[in-house]
Amino acid sequence: MTKILVTNDDGVLAPGILALAQAMRVLGDVEVIAPSANQSAGGHKKTLFQDIPTSKAELADGTSALAVSGSPADCIALAALGIMEWPVRIVVSGINRGANMGQDITYSGTVTAALEAAINGVPAVAVSLGQRDADDVADYALAAQIAVSVVRRVLEKGLPPFTILNLNVPKGPVKGMRLTRQGIRIYRDELEKAGEIYRIVGPEPGGMTDEEGTDLWAVHNGYASLSPIHLDLTAHRFLADLAAWDITL
Ligand SMILES: [Mn+2]
């Protein structure tokens, strides 16, 4: 039986992970290991040398799950280190409440859970819905169906090492699928101050450079966006220029 591990960063009780777990059952045997609390924008956090409490949880439809008091990447690390049968065939992360595009990728727990799977040699897909107010499992149904078609192909074809797929689905109707590259988001964060306490807040969604072929362009224009993301963050195009700086000891 094809083992599929489902996780997220919105927390084990979020509606998006329920929709995803339900949809993935047509492709295999689903296990759910997810953070007990919302870990959105937590980045690729790994909890080292600290206790990571876990507890049994239940999704709204009765699906049993493991809730982890840690990050999304911790959930995958624990799985890879042996709290379940490993390797699984694939890790699917989401469905996130809100898109993960452009520089969001480095903040996103949804994406970094998938990256943690890639580090541990398992193919992974991150799934996000471009709708911040999606609060009902039905809001995620279409994104879950699109995720099924993507995951079905990954199960057939595999993925190259250290490579994941980042799927972003707009609020419907969806015109089709575009293969995209990472675009550029323009954040409009603001600072709130109360005495010595600060808060970073900001309008949602932020701006973007609306360049055709990017994830942001696709979702903004009503297409589902599928980007291959690689863990190699080297600025390859800058290496030659950097060499010309002639930094020596
Ligand atoms: Mn989230």
Spell out the helices and strands N to C: EHEEEHEHHEHEEEEEEHEH
- Coarse morphology: globular
Main β-sheet description: 9 strands, mixed
CATH homologous superfamily designation: Survival protein SurE-like phosphatase/nucleotidase
The SS-based structural class is alpha/beta
CATH architecture: 3-Layer(aba) Sandwich
Please give the domain count.
Answer: 1
Question: How many beta-strand segments?
Answer: 13
How do the strands of the widest beta sheet line up side by side? Answer: 3-4-2-1-5-6-7-13-8
What value does the Rg take, in angstroms? 18 Å
CATH topology: Stationary-phase Survival Protein Sure Homolog, Chain: A
What's the CATH class, please? Alpha Beta
Bound molecules: manganese (II) ion
Instruction: List the total number of helices.
Output: 7
Q: What is the arithmetic mean of pLDDT?
A: 96
- Helix percent band: 25-40%
Low-confidence stretches: none
Q: Report the β-strand fraction as a percent range.
A: 25-35%
In words, what does this structure look like?
The chain has 249 residues and is of the alpha/beta class. The chain has one domain (3-184, 210-232): Stationary-phase Survival Protein Sure Homolog, Chain: A. The protein has seven helices and 13 strands. It has helices at 15-24, 72-83, 104-107, 109-119, 141-157, 215-220, 236-244; strands at residues 3-7, 29-35, 54-58, 64-68, 90-97, 124-130, 163-170, 177-179, 185-186, 190-194, 197-201, 207-208, 224-230. A nine-stranded mixed beta sheet has the order 3-4-2-1-5-6-7-13-8, with helices on both faces. A two-stranded antiparallel ribbon has the order 9-12. β1 (3-7), α1 and β2 form a beta-alpha-beta unit. α1 (15-24) crosses α5 and α2 runs parallel beside α4. The longest helix is centred in the middle third of the chain and has 17 residues, at 141-157. It is globular, with a radius of gyration of 18 Å. The mean pLDDT is 96.
